[in-house]
Design goal:
mainly alpha; Serine Threonine Protein Phosphatase 5, Tetratricopeptide repeat; 2 domains
Amino acid sequence: MILHLLLLISSFFLLIGCSSIQNTGVDLRLIYLDDYLNNANSEYLVGNYERAELLARKALSLDNCNSLALDIIGLCRIKNDDIEEAERNFYEAIRCNPLYHKGYTHLAVVYHLKGDRESAWKLLQKAYDINPMDMEIDEVKVFLLKSENDLEVAYEN
């Protein structure tokens, strides 16, 4: 009986909370979008690429030009050895937001994997020009240098 009463009270507060959100004009799609993106990122970081891609695609269904969602899908495609699809996703992320520096960074990795080192370095420079403070750019730079067997330069960076 007490459990039922607690459930009833908590349901009541949920209803009040939901109606107050609606009254403030908050778009619930934005809340879902944020949740999908956060969860997709978390799943990617723990290596659950299939789940990460699924969540990113759900985010994309709410905002079809979301650079972060496209980026996560591209990263998952790299992990699944689908380089062409990853490339398309990174280009789309950049098209949606030309200042999305991570799109350039990850596209540089794609070009490196395809053997086009010159384009990879140009894309990495573009990412750096947009956001020189992103540590991932330096990590990718070291990755490129190591894979080009320029270990002395890689360790200096």
